[in-house]
Amino acid sequence: xxSRATRKIICVAQGTGRERDFNLYKTTIGTAVHSDILLQxxxxxxxxxxxxGHSETPRKRCKKQPLTAADKERNRRISRERIVVENIxxxxxxxxxxxxxxxxxxxxxxxxxxxxCGIINYDLALKT
Length: 128
Description:
Elements: H1 21-27, E1 39-40, H2 48-51, E2 55-56, H3 69-92, H4 96-99, H5 109-127
């Protein structure tokens, strides 16, 4: 999770291996997120509205029914707001240990990820 105001990393969730993002959400932070918080997710989180009522995902087009102009504008708005998270993901991948498959001890992965997030937050604090 990333704070929209400060662009700092607030929370990091981690799975045990190759796991879908939505399954990771359901098993880790899904129950802890307050219902007043707006969750914006990509299209991999289809069905999140059933678990968290205050959430938004982009609408997908159907083969027989294209998106309306309002749907396209909504998708653009969600994308403009989510770009903050995607930029943080790109900054994390500058550290090559996060860009490639992790080949070290699994139990230290969360520690290393937390350290990298701390470095990124410190760098963001210096820039402001």
